[in-house]
Amino acid sequence: MMFGSYTIVPQRNLCLTDIALQFTRGIDDIIQRYIFPVEFPIGVIGNCIILLVLLSKENRTTPCLLLSAMAFSDIAYLFTLLPWWLASYGIFYRNRTFRLYFYIARMNVTAIANLFSAAANWLIMAVSLHRYTRTREPSRTRVRWPSWKSCCLIFAVFTLAAVVTSHNHIAYHVKIIPLCNRTQYAAVAHPVGPDRPMLAKWGSFMEFIVLLVMPIIVVSILCYLLYTGRRNRDISMTSANKLRTLDGETTPMIGEYGKERRESNKTRNSEQESIARQECLSEITVVAIGTCFVITHIPSAIHFVWKFVNNTAARNPLFTDIVSIANNMVVIEKIINFFLFYLMSRKFRKCANPFLGLTTRGHDALPAYDAGNHVLE
To answer: Which residues cross the membrane (predicted)?
Structure first.
């Protein structure tokens, strides 16, 4: 009987022990049973709030649209992990119907998870590049893309991610083996056809380079450039403020003309400081999100290189533990973004608090750098 890339072969008179039936062991079992159930609701709720805030009419700037698409990708990615979470509990991994459909859908669900993870990686790279471009072209600071251009970019990112991860759907053929008088199921995955082992290997390598290594390198460079650029501008701004203060103290201003000039200088300086604070918020937020992305995704790159160099690495228990930890760090990154937004933007807190059942009374005690009308410019 055929199920796409899956075949159910004749049954065998063999019964597996409970340990052999388990899909998760060691650190992976601990993560799936006790850590992921806490991470999942926090990640989904946090990213849903990000979506609602960033897609509101007053926040529909280009980076907000890109980050809202990233939040959607993160939500979808978390939902694709649910089958593995369920598979860690005995009520599911002992159930023959669950095991059958888990084996049938596993490779396709993995491909979909990789798609959303890859899309999120490219979207954070796009946000970082957009922010850096704005700092390099101050004259275009208030020029915004129309929404349709941002939507086209988002569509292109998802299309690229789907194309690069598509090999996961076709590279393997899974043989599902009925056991113990059809009360149990096991499965073995084989490359499809004589050329498919190379498709699986080099398809994974291309996915690794395009959707993981490239975003890590580009985001790292852009975050460094944004950080150093912000530091240099802060130094220049401090020097300019000192010069203006000195000029005001040493230049005599008499009568109404002097009063008007002082008021004009005060208004101009206030406007410049407001714009500078908004730009500072945007850069700090992007650098924080980008740095978090790099730190949490480097372990995934390390274990992929290990597996690519050593074909037998998957048999090593240490490798399995490293993979489990690396995958969970990616999940943690999906959760942290909400807290970064909440801590750094007073505007975001104001919009998010009603969804959290919180009210902001009086002065917001948490630090914020923004003074503009948008969460992120």
So the answer is: 34-55, 64-87, 107-129, 150-170, 208-227, 284-306, 318-343
The answer, as to whether pTM is greater than 0.70, is yes
Give 132 or 235, the one with higher predicted confidence: 132
d(CA 66, CA 270): 30
Residue 142 DSSP SS3: coil
d(CA 213, CA 282): 25
CA–CA separation, 237 and 229 (whole Å): 12
Would you state the structure tokens that stand for residue 221, as one six-digit string?
A: 């460079």
Closest CA to 377 of 260, 274, 253, 281: 281
- Pick from 350, 358, 338: which is nearest to 47 by CA? 338
Average pLDDT, the chain: 80
CB atoms within 10 A of CB 128: 26
Widest distance between CA atoms in the chain: 104
Nearest to 174 by CA among 318, 47, 5: 5
pLDDT exceeding 90 applies to what percent of the chain? 34
Three-state secondary structure readout of 222-244: HHHHHHHHHHHHHHHHHHHHHHH
**Phi–psi pair at 375, nearest 5 degrees:** -65, -40
What is the C-alpha to C-alpha distance for residues 100 and 222, in angstroms, rounded to an integer? 46
**Nearest Cα residue to 125 out of 229, 223, 46, 59:** 223
Closest-CA residue to 87 (of 76, 77, 73, 101): 101
Q: Tell me the two tokens of residue 132.
A: 């850096």
**Whole-angstrom distance, CA of residue 43 vs CA of residue 56:** 20
* 225's tokens: 């450039």
Using the 8-state DSSP alphabet, how is residue 89 labeled? S
The residues, any chain, with a CB within 8 Å of residue 342's CB and separated by 6 or more, are 348, 349, 352
What is the token pair recorded at 24? Answer: 């998760």
Rounded CA-CA distance 63/54 in Å is 9
Alpha helices of the chain — where are they, by DSSP H? 18-21, 26-30, 36-54, 62-80, 82-86, 90-93, 96-136, 147-165, 167-170, 196-208, 214-250, 255-309, 317-344, 346-356
Mean per-residue pLDDT, 261-277 = 54
Q: Rounded CA gap, 270 and 267, in Å?
A: 5
